[in-house]
Design a protein that fits this description.
Chain lengths: 172, 120
């Protein structure tokens, strides 16, 4: 009777462990953050890209407009890929593009914009990358769609045609 | 007696070493407890990715601003989610993880005690 009880418990423990590990097998071990977060826009004070004047976030993001905040750098290859889509997005009047120049130097970044075109209405430079951390960003390129001072969608990695269509659908 | 003398001398010399384990900065301690999100399997402390370098700088700034370790963890948890912490918090999703080892330990202890008394 006693040995039966012990073996039953052993089988039960084995089964529970098996189920847990089996379920865990299907979980992705690559971290994918939530892209539909309604988070407040973090406030920042950064130097403007063109000159040394200070840009305050409260002055950029106004209530009833859409903003597309794009973190980019001239040394980032995927940023070149997404650039044509940013240029297309620029043609839309109902959205303003904010460039976050990430850990870059002025010379390279301005020649990048000269070659490929400048889609941004405002560019600020995030020299040490700390302001991007405040946004919860991982690296370059990364973009945030902002409306009414809230991040309504984020795009990790370069945006593609699908993303562009999605953005245009949201802002229309 | 001679042995004690030598021991005391060595102990004094070792105490001049400023690299004591308890003097490792909180900054490094926090960075070691954070998962580098873009480099799998590394802590922020170990990583040299752009993300980790910036994050270390943010930690440094936050410490200078006077934030406590807990406040920095909760700040990063808010920005990046729970995944960034190596130490999983105790909640509905993780209570099994935390409680199971204790349960197994207690069950094992119970079996040992029972055997012990049965032998007697």
């Amino acid at each position: 009777m006693k040995s039966k009880f012990i073996s039953l418990i052993l089988i039960l423990i084995f089964l529970i462990t098996f189920v847990i590990f089996f379920k865990g097998l299907k979980n992705s071990n690559i971290y994918t953050p939530d892209t539909n977060l309604k988070k407040e826009v973090p406030s920042f004070e950064l130097k403007s890209f063109e000159n040394d004047s200070i840009v305050i976030s409260e002055k950029i993001f106004k209530d009833n407009d859409y903003y597309f905040m794009n973190i980019w750098a001239s040394w980032c290859i995927p940023c070149k890929e997404e650039h044509e889509f940013l240029m297309k997005l620029k043609k839309d009047d109902s959205i303003e593009l904010i460039g976050f120049n990430y850990k870059d130097n002025y010379k390279n970044a301005s020649s990048f914009l000269k070659d490929l075109g400048n889609p941004y209405d405002i560019i600020v430079s995030d020299k040490d990358g700390t302001a991007s951390i405040e946004w919860g960003a991982y690296g370059v390129p990364e973009s945030f769609l902002v409306y009414q001072n809230k991040i309504i969608k984020r795009f990790i990695g370069p945006i593609n045609n699908e993303d562009l269509l999605e953005i245009q659908k949201i802002i229309r | 007696m001679k042995f004690i003398h030598i021991f005391l001398i060595i102990a004094t010399i070792l105490n001049f070493n400023f690299l004591k384990a308890d003097e490792i900065k909180t900054e490094n301690k926090i960075a070691k407890n954070l998962r580098c999100l873009i480099c799998q399997g590394q802590s922020v402390y170990d990583s040299d990715s752009e993300f980790a370098i910036s994050l270390k700088l943010v930690i440094k700034n936050k410490i200078q601003e006077g934030l406590s370790e807990e406040q920095i963890y909760s700040f990063l948890k808010m920005k990046y989610g729970e995944w960034i912490l190596y130490d999983p918090v105790f909640n509905r999703n993780t209570y099994f993880l935390w409680v199971l080892p204790i349960l197994i330990f207690l069950a094992g202890g119970a079996i040992i005690i029972k055997r012990f008394y049965n032998k007697k």
